[in-house]
Amino acid sequence: MGAQASSRRRRHAPAVPDTGSDSLSVDKIKVIILGETAAGKTTLFRRWMGSPLDTDYVPSTTASVGAKLLRLEGHEPVVFELWDVPPQSFAGPSIFARYFRGAQAVVLVFSLQTPASWRVLPTYADVARLEIAAAETFETQSPKSLPVVMVGNKRDCIDKDNRQEQDAARSWCSDNGAAYVEVSALAGDSAAVLNVLKLIVTTTNPSSS
């Protein structure tokens, strides 16, 4: 019990970078990025942040947080507060609950190299919805209304002759009000990578009118 308490003290939610956005009076959207080990979600996070990419794979063990300002035609500027949450966080409810607090959207990432790996993501989505609802993030909305984008990453490694799992993932997204996109974060698919954030903007704020 003592060791567990000590572990909880050590693993705390990281601080969010200051973008100076308050002076610009822009909206903020907190986005939680979830996925299994080796899905490529940290590479996706680094692409959004404009950070150098690691060529040698090292599993993430702590959450990474960044802020990105996005200006989209027809919408007010938005600052994305991006949280790359490692799957190990799901081993400790009190830990990942802090990551989810205040979240307004979830990005679920799986690898198209192992397309069946998408099947764990609905569980991640359910946990996120429950935790966010418990934290009363959405006071007037049901947890089901939480914007969710499922990302099939590593599109450059896809088996084009075997898309049964991708079709199943698309079907789940269609049935559960989630968006589905395929990208290659490592190969430099810039437009598709940015489109994930654009989908969140259009879902949470359809227009600036």
UniProtKB/TrEMBL annotation:
InterPro entries: P-loop_NTPase (IPR027417), Small_GTPase (IPR001806)
Cellular-component GO terms for this entry: late endosome; lysosome; phagocytic vesicle
Any single GO BP term: phagosome-lysosome fusion
GO molecular function, one term: GTPase activity
Domain of life: Eukaryota
Keyword set, alphabetical order: GTP-binding, Nucleotide-binding
Disordered as annotated region, ranges: 1-22
Signal peptide: none
Record-stated family: Belongs to the small GTPase superfamily. Rab family.
Name listed for the protein in its UniProt record: P-loop containing nucleoside triphosphate hydrolase
Natural source organism: Phytophthora cactorum
